[in-house]
């Protein structure tokens, strides 16, 4: 059974790219959310193995706050163009599995997911 990875990304082109790369890499992408609230709502009622999370999203709940609310032991890999000290500090408080700066190459994203799942074994 393939691992279920939710993508939380408000840029449609980036979301489609990530979904394609993850699917080609053998992962299942059951949901793509473009808002923090949408990510929280989906995560509450559905099993997930990991989340690829952008930080700046379309609504008033950013990716860091969404990860904090979801916090059910689901590994979060931040994928963001925002890597300033304040953002990194806030993100660290959620104990992320990884932080990849955009644009991360597909190999880096897949490698990060494989590391996350290897640590779980």
Give the helix/strand layout:
Elements: E1 5-8, H1 12-24, E2 32-33, H2 36-45, E3 50-53, H3 63-70, E4 76-80, H4 85-92, E5 98-101, H5 106-120
Parallel strand pairs: 1-2, 1-3, 3-4, 4-5
Helix pairs in contact: 2-3
CATH superfamily: Response regulator
- Using only CA atoms, what is the Rg? 13 Å
Number of strands: 5
Secondary-structure content class: alpha/beta
Instruction: List low-confidence stretches.
Output: none
Distance N to C terminus: 15 Å
**Given this structure, which CATH class is correct?**
Alpha Beta
| Main sheet specs | 5 strands, parallel
The ordered H/E elements are: EHEHEHEHEH
Q: Describe the strand arrangement of the main beta sheet, using strand numbers.
A: 2-1-3-4-5
- Helix segment count? 5
- Tell me, rounded to a whole number, the average pLDDT: 94
Range of helix content: 40-55%
Count the domains. Answer: 1
CATH topology: Rossmann fold
């Amino acid at each position: 059974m393939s691992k279920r990875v939710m993508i939380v990304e408000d840029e449609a082109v980036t979301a489609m790219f990530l979904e394609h790369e993850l699917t080609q890499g053998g992962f299942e992408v059951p949901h793509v959310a473009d808002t923090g609230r949408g990510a929280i709502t989906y995560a509450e009622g559905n099993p997930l193995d990991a989340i690829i999370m952008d930080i700046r999203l379309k609504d008033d709940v950013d990716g860091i706050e969404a990860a904090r609310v979801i916090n059910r032991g689901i590994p979060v890999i931040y994928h963001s163009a925002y890597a300033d000290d304040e953002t990194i500090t806030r993100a660290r408080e959620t104990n992320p599995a990884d932080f990849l700066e955009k644009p991360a190459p597909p190999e880096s994203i897949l490698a990060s997911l494989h590391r996350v799942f290897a640590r779980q074994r």
